[in-house]
Design goal:
This protein has 180 residues and is α+β, with helices and mostly antiparallel strands. It is 28% helix and 34% strand. The mean pLDDT is 95.
């Protein structure tokens, strides 16, 4: 599966993240409100953001989200953890968008394009989200993702972190809220 496609929607261009995007993407990420519910709540700090950015570039699946009309970077997302076995699955995550995008249908528009691309090759898409990140959990449920009974325990900044797993399969996507 091509985890760094270029996808276009009515309002967006979603393309591979490049080193030259670092400063513009940090300008988006530097807003502490983006991270207030996220387990890594300090990604607005430059050194924490730089580590996230470097990890995204190294992952081979990081994407920049741009306003199609202006070319301005609105945020980032990622295709990660691809497994071709048993019909295939991929994880979508690490998504953040500037606050001006919130409530304007940008996230569903982006996710529709990403899911359409993914379901050309995989049967299942997974999402992993912090249990107290209600904004992201609500956004996932709004696009038809269903919470599973799987979870992952970890630690961040000396505190316990719980990540919940959500998923969408090809059939539920075709019949769900993002169906064309």
């Amino acid at each position: 599966m091509n985890r760094q496609p270029t996808l276009e929607t009515e309002r967006l261009v979603i393309r591979p993240l490049a080193e030259s995007d670092r400063a513009d993407l940090f300008a988006v990420a530097a807003d502490p409100a983006l991270w207030e519910q996220h387990p890594a709540h300090d990604r607005w700090r430059r050194e924490v953001f730089d580590a996230l950015f470097d990890e995204g570039i190294a992952s081979g699946g990081a994407l920049a989200v741009l306003d199609k009309a202006t070319g301005k970077i609105l945020g980032s997302t990622r295709f990660d953890r691809y497994d071709a076995e048993e019909g295939g699955k991929v994880e979508i995550g690490w998504t953040f968008l500037e606050r001006d995008c919130w409530g304007k249908g940008i996230n569903p528009e982006m996710k529709r394009a990403m899911l359409t691309h993914a379901f050309d090759e995989v049967a299942l898409v997974e999402f992993r989200v912090g249990d107290t990140n209600y904004r992201s959990r609500n956004a996932l449920e709004a696009i038809g993702a269903v919470r599973t009974d799987r979870y992952e325990l970890g630690r961040y900044d000396g505190k316990r972190v719980v990540h919940l797993y959500y998923e969408i399969d090809r059939q539920s996507f075709a019949n769900g809220p993002l169906a064309d």
